[in-house]
Design a protein that fits this description.
DNA polymerase, domain 1, single chain, 4 domains, 14 helices, alpha+beta, 3-stranded antiparallel sheet, nucleus, 337 residues, magnesium, PolB_thumb, 5-stranded mixed sheet, 15% strand, metal-binding
């Protein structure tokens, strides 16, 4: 998709304005029930700025975008695309490696002077598994492991799969879970050590009575665990691994490394966290923008604050949050664009 290529390139250049411009346009076009074949079909649509319209016009006339093609052939873009595919590598690290003259992952692995973080080492170690797609069947299998393990320690806990899989998607690149407990907190281990290939726990930095963040893309302050789970393939019907004729059956790996994010939220903030972590990213941005500009409220993954009444609005469900905002409830599978 030309717009997503353009947006990704601007993200690599840390140009948030242009990146969002193409992401928002892509979301609008995906939502249309028909493919755009004439310029007059986009008249009156939001998020169709001059840069976006130029790309659309060229695709209609030429069948492709020369700008997107140029990006795909750009050395910097190709290097950043490779670097950021590694778990634990972002734009800042990619920029550092690129300035060092590195262009491919092979060159990164061959450079013995580089000091990789624990997360990056895990990213390289399980690279092939982590860049492959996670199927719905695999997500369901991991969900069962997480729920059973959490409920061993916290029988009343609520464990909900979020992200793309909650929005009805059939494939993803990682699996996000929201965990909350109506009762008192217990600091037990959440997953069996034998199944964890990598684990990084980020402690909560939430301050009670703190106003929601005004930033549209602000990170929340929940306790999180970024982990890589070993999923044994017999648990999944559609195994990702087929035995090669060149290998003995005993040598075939019978497990797959899968990225999971566990987010621990206080029970009273669960509805807001569920709304935020379900996504999509663009849907969340637009909802927070709507709350700010149309309702004079501030919304984030922790709370909704009414600036006119100067009160926090409690919500026990996503439906109640939409009601506070004066909006009809939008089902998770309708939040992809």
């Amino acid at each position: 998709d030309a717009f997503e290529i353009m947006a990704e390139n601007y993200e690599f250049k840390e140009n948030e304005t242009f990146c969002l411009e193409f992401l928002r346009a892509a979301s609008v076009l995906k939502f249309l029930p028909f493919p755009v074949t004439r310029m007059k079909e986009i008249q009156g649509l939001p998020c169709m700025g001059d840069r976006v319209r130029d790309v659309i016009e060229e695709i209609i006339e030429e069948g492709e975008s020369s700008r997107a093609k140029e990006v795909l052939n750009d050395e910097r873009y190709k290097s950043f695309k490779q670097f950021t595919s590694v778990f634990g590598v972002g734009v800042k690290t990619s920029e550092k490696w690129y300035r060092m003259g590195l262009r491919t992952l092979e060159e990164v692995k061959a450079d013995k002077t580089l000091k990789l973080s624990k997360m990056q080492r895990a990213g390289f170690l399980y690279y092939e598994d982590l860049v492959s797609c996670v199927s719905k069947a695999e997500a369901d299998a991991v969900s069962l492991i997480v729920k059973n393990t959490v409920c061993t320690f916290l029988p009343d806990a609520l464990v909900t799969i979020t992200g793309g899989f909650r929005r009805g998607k059939k494939i993803g690149h990682d699996i996000d879970f929201l965990i909350t407990n109506p009762g008192p907190r217990e600091d037990d281990e959440l997953l069996h050590k034998g199944l964890l290939l990598y684990c990084d726990i980020i402690e909560s930095t939430f301050v009670k009575e703190q106003l929601p963040s005004r930033k549209v893309d602000a990170m929340d302050n929940f306790q999180k665990c970024f982990a890589i789970l070993k999923l044994y393939e017999p648990r999944v019907d559609n195994s990702s691994y087929n035995a090669s004729k060149n290998f003995d059956m005993a040598e075939v790996k019978d497990w797959k490394a899968i990225r999971i994010d566990l987010v621990i939220t206080p029970f009273e903030q669960y509805a807001y966290a569920l709304l935020g972590w379900t996504g999509s990213r663009q849907f969340g941005r637009d909802l927070r923008r709507y709350a700010t500009h149309e309702r004079k409220m501030i919304l984030d993954n922790h709370a909704l604050y009414d600036r006119r009444k100067r009160i926090f609005l409690k919500a026990g469900s996503e439906e109640e949050i939409f009601a506070h905002l004066g909006l009809d409830y939008v089902e998770p599978w309708e939040r992809n664009a």
